[in-house]
Structure formats: structure tokens, C-alpha cells
Specification:
It is a single chain. By secondary structure, the protein is mostly helical. The protein folds into four domains: 145 residues, no CATH class; 95 residues; 136 residues, no CATH class; 135 residues, no CATH class. Helices cover 56% and strands 6% of the residues. It contains 22 helices and six strands. The strands form two sheets. It has a four-stranded mixed β-sheet with strand order 3-4-6-5, sandwiched between helices. A two-stranded antiparallel ribbon has the order 1-2. The longest helix has 32 residues.
Amino acid sequence: MKHLSKTFLFYSISAIAYFLLIVYLLRPIFPLKQSRIPIKQNHLQVVAMFNAWTIWWNAESFQRTGTDYMQAPIFFPERNAFAFSEPQPATLLVAPLLWWGKSPAYAYQVYLISSLFLNAFLTLCLVRYFRQTRLLSFVSGCLILTLPLVHGVIHVLQLVPIWSIIGTWFAMRWFRTQPSYRRGLLAGLCLGYCGWVCLHQALLLTILLSLTAWPLLRGIKFSQVIGPLLLAAFGAICLIRPFAVVMKETLEAHQFARADELIQKLSAQPQHYLHLPDHPLLTFNSVDALPRHQLCPGWLKIGLAGFAIGFTFWRRKCRPWIIFLTLTGVVAFLFSLGLHLQVGNWKPWNSLGHWIPGIAQVRSVYRFAFFVQLAVVFLAVEGLSLIGTLVRLSTRTKFTRRLALFGFYLLCGLAIFETWPVAPTQAGVPVWNKSRPWIEYLQSHTPPGKSIACLPFADGNQLSQYDLTARWMYYGTMHGRPLVNGYSGFFPESYYDLRRLVNEEFPSQKTFQEFRARQVEFLVVLRSVYARKEMSAAVEAKEVEHVLADSSGIDIYRLMPATERRP
């Protein structure tokens, strides 16, 4: 009973400590607000607003009993528009907040906080389960909580919940200790849930496991492994299949693939792993000219990881786990180079694209670095464990023991603080109160099966040029009417055709004809871009009817049916 009380107290204090650390790390967003969304400093809020919209659509479609889940209200009337980007059904965890009246931005913040907490607390539980000390278990959670790459892309919500990746790794390690169907199924379900969090990362994880999991299976009879692994694959497929199949068919139907120039731009280079982001405690590089990707997990952690690898054969029980982590880190490093990795005339990434479905659609190849940093962190924990053992064995007097323990605690603290992340900032999102008249008008007057066009459209392909489009989508979480424009990971060709026409000729008769062909009922126009006098000719020709002028700077025009237009 006393042991249980101590265990409960340890986990409780650790959970409180992690939560307080998260509050400090994300201090600009507290208290949580309905009209703000956290983003990395000096970054745009386009992706964050898009992910908030994704949270809304998951909650909205679930309320509709999941019917037409992939028929998201963008790029109307394109089919399966939700398949053009990450669906993230795991965000259903915060759907009740939306059903209770909270904004998508508020739900976004709760999901972010919950993900960071689960990253740390699940790590603590799993490391502790495998017989590490309480101190090292707590330190492990802190290292994961402050992982540089997570905070480097904190505005890309689907990359923050790395706890599902960690759970998959430890489920495989647990399977090694006693192979069984139950443990195999658990590993498969963890992998499947990775797809619910981020299908992109689940694909990368699957590729890595297929190449690096063998040390965790070595020494186990084939008859003990094959059945549970098949069950694991079945469990993962059952979780991912409902939306992955539709995504695959849709992307292939549109012949979506990433251009080599974009893949190369978003691939890592070896020198990127020499740079720490933001303001590190320990650095050996000038911070005047940081590269696009700063992927170093921390020099002290790398040193501790190397120490653990060097003593692999001395620690027989941990040997398979250390070899697995080492292989994962090395293979992930090589794959993160993408098209920069070349052996003679052979580029392994292009071969993967031919062999593995989904690879041709992967854009940010550098995200393999997540697995590099995770491998380094867990190897560093093994290195700290080894040092702790050496401290206990080599100190005999009370003074030297205390001195050695102080040095050990200092080493643990330095490992945590050497990559202490910079706090994010906040960005504003549209709010209901300031836009209520025109939103309510669309809600009450847009007929079923009709869409709206929100003008202006994006005037290019740069992320900054989609800021207003992302805001139009966020307004869509309030009125719920389908848009003919939008933002996503991929864009259908029909959207580019419409955008080109609108940006070159609007307001012209041809653009109105195209809008009618796409079942547009209303044009939502930003008055500062298209003043009423510019629209007057279209109103006189009865192409459109001006139906609402909102004080927020929005005009709404109803697209007149062809039979009512002036000849």
C-alpha cells in the first residue's frame, strides 16, 4: 500500500509539473481566448487557421453521423475535397468543445496543450515501465516536451502529437519481452492511430519500422512473430483504411504529385543537423545565417546518445533497444535528405516513390528528422542511465557520492535546458460578433446545393498570398456554406482555372458564367478590393444583385439566374 501511494504521488506530481511547464512554454496564449491562435514567432497563421478549420470540419461531419466525411465545403463542386490535405480525425478529441459553443481556435489551443502533455506524460510512463529511475523517467518526459523540432513547427498542429509514434515504438519493445497477439495488436493500433493524427508521419514511421524493427524481433521464433505481426498490420489497416483509401483514389485521380524542385527544397541537408534553432544554451555555430531547417536535437544529447551506443555491448538487456534506436536514427537521417541523397546516378527517394504508395505525394521530406531527434533523445536517456549506474558503482565515500550526484543532476538539467524552446506568439482569427450580419444572411438565404465565392482570390502560390483565403475558410466555420475557393495541401486544376479567370477578368460576364456553372448563389466581396462602383456595371446588367452591405467592409451580391439577366 505504501508503494502504491508513492507511485501515485510520483505520477501526480510529474503530471502537475508537466502542465506547469507547458503553461510556461506557451505563456502568451494563457488565458485561452476564442479569437486567438498560437503560431511560431515570425510565421504566418495560414496553416494554423487551416488546421483550426480542419478541427471544425471533423466535429461538424461527425455530428452529421459521418456522412460525406470527405466532402469538405471547399473547392465546390469538387468531390472528396477533404482528401487534398491531412484529415486529422484524432482532433475529434476536442470536438465536444465546438458542440458546447467554443470556437475552432479555442479547440485548437486545447488540442495543442493536450498533445504536449501526452507527449511528456506517456513518455514518463513508458520509460518508467521499462525500469528506469523516477528521475530519469521525469527527465525523459521533459526532453520530449522540449523537443526542438516540435516547437519549431508548433503552428503545424498535426506534427505536435508525437506521443503516438512513441507509443508505437514502446509497444514494439513491449512485444519483444513476451510476444503475444494482444501485444502485437496494441502495436498495430498505435501505428494506426498515428495515421489518425498525421497520415504523413504514419507513412514515414511505417517505412522506418519495416527497415529497422528487426533488432526488436531478433532471437524470437518465426512462429511466435508472424501471427501477432499480421494481426498488428490488420489492426493498423482497419484504423487507417476508412479515409486512406479515399485519399489514395482521389489523389491518383487528380494525378497529384510533388515536383522534384519542391521536394529538394523541403529536404534536409547534412549541415542542417549542425544548427540548433532559436536561442540554444550550447552552440558551436554562428546564428547570423541559419539555414531553412535547423535540425540538431542538442549537442549534449548527441554526446549522451553516442555514449550509450559506445557501451551497447556492455548492457545486454538494452542492446536490442539501443540498436533499434541507432538504426532508426541513421536511416531517418538518410531519408530526410530526400533528393539530396544520391549514390552515383541513383536517387533512393525516387525509387521509394515508385515502390511505395503515397511517397509521390510527400512534400516535406525533412520531417524524417522527427525520428532522428526522438531516437537521439531516447538514446540520451540510456546514456544518462549508464552514467547514473557508473556513479553509484564508483563512489564510495559520502562526499564523493554527493558530488557525483550533483554532477549527474546538473547533467540532466543541462540536457533539458540546452534546447529550451522560444515561446510562440498569438495571431488573431475572425470572430462572430464583428461579422454577424453577413454570416447570418448567408445562413438563412443560401439554398441547399448552392455555394458561395469569397473575393478576392489568392493572387499567387506563396503561403502569404493565402492568408485571406484561410480567413474565408475560418468564416466558413460560422456560416457552414461551401466555398468554390479554399486552401489545402493540394489544389485541384479546376480551382487554378477559376482563380486565373477571376484574377484576370473579374467582374466580367465570363466570370459570372463560370460562377453559375459552379452553382454559386452569392459573391462575398471585400469592399476594399472591389468597390461598389466597380460592381455597378454588373448590377446594371443584372449579372448580380447587391443584397447586403455590412459595416465590417463586406458586400454580398446574389448571382442572378441567366433568365433574369438583361440581354
